[in-house]
Amino acid sequence: ACMLCRRAEADPDICGNKLEKFGVCAHVFCLFFATLLFQQDNEHVGLLGFLPRDIHLAVRRAAQKHCCICGQSGATIVCCGENCNRWFHLPCAKEGGCVNQYITPYSSYCSEHRPEQDVQVTPEPGTECPICMEPVEDRKTFRTMVCPACRRAWFHRDCIQGQAMRAGLLCLYCPLCRDISEFLGQMFIMGIRIPFRLPTWEDNDAFADLGERHSWCNAKKCLYPGGREEAEEEGPWELLLCSSCAAEGTHRRCSGLRARRTSWECDSC
Question: Where does this protein act, in terms of pathway (predicted)?
């Protein structure tokens, strides 16, 4: 189990991956959000720059703190609200309506002091989340959010969090107006975790085939002695691709194209 939240299993979208080293086990974001636990300049020491002795000290300190959500001891995160003394575990934050901002300096807020969207609008009756297509609540709440740019896109917190994990920082935008700058800034403030990486749909070169150039002759009868998949740089056996779709090709001679002809279209186009 993670030494900081005491969970063997926790939502990786909230807590991040679990690290084990030097006899210490902790979730990545349990480390970053823990109060009075500071990261060293050198990220290669300890766990991502958090020294084992400092982690143990944070655990001993947390033993005296009780989570305002689950009531159990071992709470490592205190609300940043002025004079607030509410402590909680990172995995409990969502259940208790707390906000953790996944940007430096990794601030956390309880349900009373969490940031609210400063957008004075309410959704029209029957408004649906554009991500899951299910109805949203009739007003802004912790679980129902609105795009600050267009003020027309309403979505569930869980839906936009899931979309953020799939899209990453480079491809996340309002699902309706496609605004990026204002939308991203607001999502960070409201506690949406947006990982800095390429979208998951590009994992394992899933769309690599789209970048490959068509490379064979589609003429009904290919005349080239080397076969359909061979071609020469120039001359009668140069391969021309359809100028409209680029999805079919032909050797010049196979389609009776003269040397001065620079473009060709397939029968479909």
Answer: Protein modification; protein ubiquitination
* Residues β-bridged to residue 249: 241
Domain at 221, CATH number: 3.30.40.10
Q: What is the pLDDT of residue 197?
A: 86
Q: What is the pLDDT of residues 200-228, one digit of tens each?
A: 876 666 555 666 788 999 999 999 998 99
- Of 215, 255, 216, nearest to 236 by C-alpha is 255
pLDDT of 28 strictly over 80: yes
Q: Round to whole Å and give the CA distance between 266 and 42.
A: 59
184 C-beta neighbours (distance < 10 Å), count = 17
pLDDT at 262 over 90: no
Instruction: Report CA torsion sign: 98, 99, 105, 106.
Output: positive
In terms of domains, do 17 and 105 share one?
yes
Overall domain count for the chain: 3
* Residue 89, domain member (yes or no): yes
Token digits of residue 158: 């869980």
Q: Are residues 30 and 15 in contact, defined by beta-carbon separation less than 8 angstroms?
A: yes
